[in-house]
Amino acid sequence: MQLYDVIIIGAGAAGLAAGRRLHDAGQSILILEARDRIGGRIWTDHTFANFPIEQGAELIHGESAVTHALLHAAGLHTLPAPRKAFLQWGTPAPAQRIAELPHDLRTTIDALRAAYNALPQQLAPNHDCSLATYLQGQGFDGAAIAIADVLFAQTCCAAIETLSCADLVREMTVDHAGLDEFRIGEGYGALLEHHSAGLPIRLNTPVHTIRWHAQGVEVSTPHDQFAARKCLITLPVSLLQTEMITFDPPLSPAKQAAIAAFRMEPATKLLYRFKIPLWDESLVYLAHLGVTARWWTPGYGRAGGAILCCYVTAERAAQLDALPEADALHLGLAEISQLLGRPDLSAACIGARRVAWAHEPYTRGGYAHLPPGAADARLVLAQPERAVLFFAGEATAYDTNPQTVHGAIESGWRAAAEILPP
């Protein structure tokens, strides 16, 4: 049996980033991936439209995100996705730009944004509470907190009542990516294909047991066994919680407690294709209080990009997932028709698809968040176990932005630095 320097579990953004660094540093590595593709929660489709459609992670969050350097090296390009500047609000329908809303509603949204941005100054040291509790303390009523749930908690794949303010403050404090957002013209998949070129990857190879000791690890799959001096685990925290992989001996109590602390809610996309755009070309992003609370235009900045995407998380995603696909898609069309004031949308739709990440067996949700009182779990999850087991992935991104691709990439780089000899 070949003895590798490092076995990496998972060929998502974190695993590929770590694999690239370790391979280029001369380490013998093997990446094991349960799916029949690389990418993890990145899943670019080329069949739904005449341009790449992201069924999973879609945006680059920040003009200074490390992703830009990788795109430049790969010769790939970005398109602006100015969601924040062009946000429309649609309760009551039809949707309008924030500046055009009635005075009281506009004032409420502006005040919510100000209170959210002031979290680092307002939250007392060594104190934690949910974002809902914090906003209540700032004087907001239930109607305003429902708006905040869409604008802030949905972004974190969380319910506003279970979202840790201390974890949000930590992220705000270490953020170095910036505020502007982008899409990759050629799709995220093109970036991963370039970045993973030449790496030894075995697809369709789920891991079920990791036996580890001071000398290394033995990794068992349904058909093979592999040995290495070290092992890097980059699985979504939801899979660690299900104990899909057995660790022998078990992980430390501190590590197990950190894993248990995370919450990973459903995340679902509804995608709709039309012959031509039936909305103003300036439409970028709109939100409302309905079930399909957040919408954007994946084809923004592309000629003829006639695609609408609803992306929701947490309870709203669970509601859509509980419906038959046709019913969920019908509900989405009904709500977006009202938001845009276009009753002809349904008749004009020529293709539709639901992507439910909670039902994807090797993901089982969107991305991880922490409840109040558990903000330290990211750091604990990221720590190696006796210099043999190492951990990366967006949930471990304590010194950058979790719940982002660039956060996952940076976590892979951090783990690679821990593994490489000094």
Structure description:
The chain is α/β, with parallel strands linked by helices. The chain folds into 3 domains: about 5-40 and about 195-265 and about 370-420, FAD/NAD(P)-binding domain; about 45-60 and about 80-85 and about 180-185 and about 265-360, Polyamine Oxidase, Chain A, domain 2 (Alpha-Beta Complex), CATH 3.90.660; about 100-175. It has helices spanning about 15-25, 65-75, 105-115, 120, 130-135, 140-155, 165-175, 190-195, 235-240, 255-260, 315-320, 325-340, 345-350, 375-380, 405-420; strands at about 5-10, 30, 45, 55, 60, 80, 85-90, 95, 180-185, 200, 210-215, 215-220, 225-235, 245-250, 265, 265-275, 285, 295, 305-315, 350-355, 370, 390. Strands 1, 2, 10, 11, 12, 13, 14 and 22 form an 8-stranded mixed sheet that branches. A 7-stranded mixed sheet has the order 8-7-17-18-19-16-20. The mean pLDDT is about 95.
